[in-house]
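Good day; I would like, with your permission, to put a structural problem before you. What I wish to show you is a protein chain and, alongside it, a tokenised description of its three-dimensional fold. Please examine both parts with care and let me know of anything in them that strikes you as inconsistent. Thank you for your consideration; the sequence and its tokens are set out here:

***
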Amino acid sequence: MIEKLQRLQQILKEMDRVLVAYSGGVDSTFLLKVAYDTLGDNTLGVLGISETVPRDQIFEAQRMAEDIGVPFQKVDTDEFQREEFVQNGPDRCFHCKTALFQRLWEIATEKGFPHIVDGNNADDVGDYRPGMKAARNLNVRSPLMEAGLTKEEIRELSRQLGLPTWNQAASPCLSSRFPYGTRITEDGLIQVEKAEKYLKELGFYQVRARYHDRLVRIEVDKDNLEKAVQHADLIVSYMKSIGFSFVTLDLAGYRLGSFNDLL
């Protein structure tokens, strides 16, 4: 693991100046920290802002960047102006990441950063990730992947570096809660964001509020299914207050990218 960290540092040194596509998640936070420790002010973290990113996540990501001390900025992205994204086909992530990376290259060119890097890691190889195709098309590198670092190793190294994100739950963008083929709407995103925030406030660690129009399908870790049933009346009442008519609990429990099972 230490050898992989050293390899990562060497990759970054060879690039010299990097703009980090930063989300505040486990991987990009670790990459931002290592890049800043290695390159100093030759690192710039840029956080993409849109309706698909929870407000709490934006706040925490900005606070984390400030704690690291790295040069940092936020930028609005325009994926909602792209019909290919809104119509939500299986390649939705490709169009979203294309919008993000095109915007980041505008900033990188303006500020003199020859490289953009993202937080994809070695575990992402072979997974269904159309966003990686967008990265390759736009010459965005993935140094964590190049160094062979896995998610588990990144979490452990983050813990050693004192990063509070080391045990953070996975949190892809809110549009991933919509079944492929269901149009993504701002109102639907707001419902999902409110639903997941409420479930976390009840003490659930890993949650998903899957959007099915008037129905919300809740995923929690299997160990917490009984707890969810115990809180059923509270959960149903809240979900109906934000616009859902039907509330279901997925007995299969939380799993990453469950809509990909339909592909």
